[in-house]
Each structure stands twice: as C-alpha cells, then as structure tokens.
Amino acid sequence: MHFNDDYNQDHVAAHTLCKTAARHCKNLLMYQSNGYQLSIPYYPSIFLDISEFASKKYEALKNYGNQHNRFGKLFEIVMERNKIWGYANKVEYAESFVPIKTLM
User: Fold this and answer.
1) Distance CA 33, CA 74 (A)
2) What is the architecture of the domain spanning 9-101?
C-alpha cells in the first residue's frame, strides 16, 4: 500500500482503506509512490529484486500518461530510485518497502 505519510490525498485515503481491508493479512508493506519530501522519512528495510521485470514496470508507468508524469521525468526518477535500491542490494533493480507487519 502507499506510504502512510504521502502528500497526495488519494494515496492517503488508499493507504487507510488498504490497511483496514488487509488487517487479517500476514504481511503489510508500504511503498513510496512519488518523490515528495515527507515529514516522516521513508526508510525501507525490505527489498525485492525486480530486475527481471523493470522494463515491464516502466511500460506500465507510461500508461499513466502525462497527467502523472510531472516535468516529464517522474517515471525515469522512479526507475532511477529502483536502480539505487538495486545497487545497494547487489542487483540491477530493487523495489523498496517499509513494513507495517511481516510474518515469515
């Protein structure tokens, strides 16, 4: 679900709805969907190797069109962020998550 401190009000509402709907799930993870400076820092501790699917993710992001691609760089920045998390975890691309709860 969206990170709880997102500044986009739709994302905040989606987070609240997801958290309630998933209250019985064993694993609840939050992701960063935009690059806003947040009042609560986004410090992920769970990472998933998405190298095999990075090009598909980029194509999926492009489906959002220009309305969400402010300044024409948002999608590239998202992929660069995935590259940075990948570098930190010794893979090409990684998705990052902040856990609410995890049960292994």
Assistant:
1) 10
2) 3-Layer(aba) Sandwich (3.40)
